[in-house]
Amino acid sequence: MSTVFTFRIDGKDVAGTEGQTVMEVAEENGIDIPGLCHLEGIHDRGACRLCMVEIGGSPKLVAACMTRITEGMEVVAHSERLLEYRQAITEMLFVERNHVCAVCVANNHCELQQMAADLGVTHFDLPRINPKVDIDASHRLFAIDHNRCILCLRCVRVCDEIEGAHTWDVMHRGLETRVQTDMGIPWGESSTCTSCGKCVQVCPTGALFEKGRAVASGSKHERPFLPWLKTVQEERGL
Amino acid sequence: MTKPRVATVWLDGCSGCHMSLIDLDERLLDIFERADLVYSPLVDFKEYPENVDVCLVEGAVSSEEDLHKIKMVRARTKTLIAFGDCAVTSNVPGMRNPIGVQPLLDRSYIENATLNAQLPSRIVPKLLPTARPVHRVVTVDVFLPGCPPSADLIYCLLDDLLSGRVPDVAGARFGR
Ligand code: SF4
Ligand code: SF4
Ligand code: SF4
Ligand code: FES
Fold first, then answer.
1. ipTM for the complex?
2. Which of A166, A215, B67, B72 reaches 20 to 30 Å from A184, CA-CA?
3. What residues of chain A score a pLDDT lower than 50?
């Protein structure tokens, strides 16, 4: 039998089972902790750092999606300080690539754009880097515009863990970091991609999109299929 | 008591933000009952006057003319508002930034020209190396993102300012 832990998030009493993350328990209790890389149904990666929380008065911040719950822990998920950090992170995600919401396929359907609005980010104090970044439109059905990629790595995880193709991975480091298909060859030449479209579905931004979509038409569907597929996979012991 | 003096300025933008301002419709009557419009591309004053209380600036700072204008506007204005995404982030005008001015002009006026290929050199102001958001050039007091910001948001902002309240632009977002 699994152990039940009781603890508090923002002063609210909550309970979860051993092994769950702070993020999962928060979600179950209707407490919204911001995050762009966490997605129910695939493993957490701790890539975006937006879900940083304070635990038990320690000055060190931890990612809620990567932190397992313990008995009696005191989690602060919302504070002035955390808001400032989250605003700064959001700003950095914007300025390190070239985001132009007005002409983006994800305009109005984008989790990054929504994050900025939710956190009250109305402008960027940091200068834009204006990097020269590629678009790969070699795939028959889909394209990736790296100008809009925030390196959440949802595509990498869904392709590996759910589709089992592991077409996506990560190359280079720091500002040069890019997601890539099949060891850096054009997506359209990939021999592993099954064209299932899962990566496109889970991408929080307009980086991955279906070809032929106009500006602001890239609405991604609800994603209940993800947890379901994960369960099937686990049940079959895959 | 004299009415607050309001101005609007159009830098490197598509004029969409000004169109959204016009979308205030009958609420424009309310605003300009309470304020005077002293300069704007929508009216015919040639000179940006002194002692402007509120100025809405549309567009990024992209050319030498924009640069000259925004510095002058800043010096003569109490509350300067970055009005819309081009002013706030450089938005679409900023899409040229990773390309660089010379390759951009060559591509547009030489490589793609079928007739009379030449770079524009007279009358049009010189482009700056990058299109920049207004606040990277002068101090901005209020940011109103949106491409364009909705008429409702513009009204709230002007209403707040004219009523002496701290402007609340909650609900404003990049894009539309
Ligand atoms: S991906 Fe999102 S934030 Fe980036 S340009 Fe598109 S809508 Fe804007
Ligand atoms: S379409 Fe499917 S198989 Fe191809 S890269 Fe995306 S998730 Fe992987
Ligand atoms: S392409 Fe989309 S899903 Fe993949 S890392 Fe970039 S933002 Fe995330
Ligand atoms: S949601 Fe936790 S690091 Fe991104």
1. 0.91
2. A215
3. none
